[in-house]
Specification:
single chain; about 575 residues; alpha+beta; Jelly Rolls; 3 domains; 4-stranded antiparallel β-sheet; about 60% helix; elongated
């Protein structure tokens, strides 16, 4: 047998076990998709069928969750083993994020050593007159321990009171209210400073029945002490020393609360779920825009400008068509925003194809042109004269994308997105233009040698990416904000790059990665709001997750690119063009 025997086609495709593996992969993907759909729905409605059916538009919520499950299925089937790598990367990133949160929460136990407090000496005996002491029987006095940003913060107090032999006194040191978590210690000292009695806690009976002013068992009480002699005594109080175990325990507890908000916050309530879905729609559209362009090895970053032009055109039409029926106006707005994105994407494509302009530089500069033009038109043409801020008038209901889930901004853009994903897939996998895009992305020299009109293809691929980005701008203007505002995207377009890279530039995987990234964005908002985690910590956690995931994606991307370069240098033919992998 010759050592140079070429492998048979069946061997290349995986042999006779390949169909079985595909079916097994499909079954696994379907099982995971069902689990995800049920988990999201169950969490959203707290496992109550009655609550679900009592929620307005619950059928549409369930439909969207089924579509989320379908995105998971596509993710598993399309990426296969790489899906496991992506998930492991996410898990590692989340673990590192938890570690960062834990480190920043190491100071959470400080709440036990700072806060407003009160002290009191309680007795049925007659108070002794003495103008030189700080306290009298049954009168309160207070302050704040370790107040931040104070030149000389109070860390302890030793206030005096006068007493007689045999007086029965109770000494209290307690938090002012339930917002103060200070954990107190109290001591009774005589005139020489000797400690006569001490306490670092209160019993539940003392808190609930004996002393009305106590807040919790962290308060300190010395109850029913008989003074040994006439004289001046001191009530000494300070926060208890916080043990290392308490510091670690509090840091872990607070970190767990923060990550519960991050991981479950977006699906705890319907309105939060809506924030996740509406954000995901925009990110998926932007991810598709970048994925299409990057498939042709064109590093265009023009989606931001195309988004702004799509939003501007759709907004102008909406503001000037108050009486056109929505059934006519909405499709026209969609078509107009797509056309605006197409034209603005065609410009850098032509500059690259016919003038050799660097697409990275040209698209970034055109982004500036688009955003400044948007601001100029909004300021001088569309802003009402009496407006207190820079924004257009609110769109009339006929120009707003119809909502499919009550009290959210989840609109018919969900169905538009499904159509766009299918069209992008058909374009890349089932059309001559898609074949040309793939072959140019694999090897430009081979494409030119094979007769592909690379100039035309490069122009068209940038313009088609502009169509999808223009639709993203329309969604922001007519679906979410429902008016034109400054900074309408808040640089959201550039986050579409992350979505595209996570998906390995596979348009069928982009919906999953867009949902994943939007989930992290939404979870970060609720993490900051619910767990009182500072904005900087939330952003740091996001950055760690994004960097690790994209770093793993970039390694694969550049490995594939180097492989294609090696093939080009050795003169071998380009392989696996029909496979669609980049």
């Amino acid at each position: 047998m010759s050592a140079s025997r070429k492998p048979h086609a069946s061997e290349i495709s995986g042999g006779p076990l390949a169909p079985l593996r595909k079916r097994l992969l499909l079954i696994i993907g379907a099982a995971v998709a069902i689990i995800v759909t049920l988990f999201v729905t169950n969490t959203l409605f707290a496992g109550s069928m009655e609550k679900m059916t009592g929620t307005p538009d619950w059928q549409n919520i369930l439909l969207v969750n089924v579509l989320v499950g379908a995105c998971v299925l596509l993710f598993v089937v399309e990426l296969r083993r790489q899906a496991v790598r992506v998930l492991l990367t996410v898990i590692v990133a989340l673990m590192l994020g938890f570690l960062v949160t834990f480190i920043f929460n190491l100071d959470s136990a400080e709440r036990f050593s700072r806060g407003e407090f009160r002290v009191q000496v309680i007795s049925d005996a007659e108070p002794r007159e003495n103008d030189e002491v700080d306290l009298q029987y049954n009168r309160r006095r207070g302050g704040e321990f370790n107040k931040p940003n104070v030149v000389a913060p109070v860390s302890e107090i030793a206030w005096t009171f006068a007493g007689a032999e045999g007086d029965i006194v109770s000494l209290l040191a307690y938090a002012k209210n339930r917002r103060s978590h200070v954990d107190l210690l109290v001591e009774l000292r005589d005139a020489t400073g000797a400690v006569l009695a001490a306490s670092a806690e209160a019993t539940p009976l003392q808190v609930d029945e004996t002393f009305d002013d106590l807040v919790s068992v962290k308060d300190a009480v010395i109850e029913g002490f008989a003074l040994p002699a006439d004289g001046v005594y001191s009530l000494y109080a300070r926060p208890e020393e916080v043990s290392t175990g308490t510091v670690l325990s509090e840091a872990i507890t607070q970190s767990q609360l923060a990550f519960e908000a991050l991981l479950l916050g977006p699906i705890e309530r319907v309105n939060r779920w809506g924030v996740w879905i509406q954000d995901a729609i925009t990110l998926i559209l932007l991810g598709l825009s970048f994925a299409i362009v990057f498939r042709a090895q064109q590093f265009s970053l023009g989606a931001e400008g195309q988004l702004y032009f799509g939003a501007l055109v759709s907004g102008i039409i909406a503001l000037n068509s108050p009486h056109v029926p929505g059934v006519i106006l909405i499709p026209f707005i969609i078509l107009a925003s797509a056309t605006a994105g197409f034209i603005y994407g065609l410009i850098p494509g032509a500059l690259k194809a016919y003038l050799g302009a660097n697409e990275l530089v040209s698209t970034l500069m055109l982004n500036v042109v688009a955003t400044r033009f948007f601001e100029m038109v909004l300021n001088f043409q569309l802003k009402p004269p009496d407006a207190g801020y820079v924004a257009s008038e609110k769109f009339t209901p006929n120009a707003v994308l119809p909502v499919i889930v009550d009290k959210t901004q989840v609109t018919i853009a969900v169905f538009l997105l499904v159509i766009v994903v299918l069209l992008c897939w058909l374009l890349i996998r089932r059309t001559p233009l898609g074949y040309e895009i793939r072959i140019i992305g694999s090897n430009l020299r081979f494409a030119d040698y094979g007769g592909v009109n690379s100039r035309r293809t490069i122009m068209l691929v940038m313009a088609i990416g502009g169509i999808v980005a223009g639709l993203a701008g329309m969604h922001l203007a007519n679906g979410i904000h429902r008016q034109l505002i400054l900074n309408i995207s808040f640089a959201l377009a550039f986050e579409g790059v992350v979505v595209a890279l996570l998906a390995r530039l596979n348009v069928l995987v982009v919906p999953f990665t867009g949902l994943l990234y939007a989930y992290l964005r939404a979870g970060a908002q609720f993490m900051e709001r619910d767990a009182n985690v500072s904005f900087e910590v939330v952003r740091m956690i996001q950055a760690i997750i994004i960097l690790l995931i994209t770093a793993e994606a970039l390694v694969t991307f550049f490995q594939q690119r180097q492989k294609r370069a090696d093939i080009d240098e050795t003169g071998h033919s380009v392989e696996a063009l029909e496979g669609g992998d980049v």
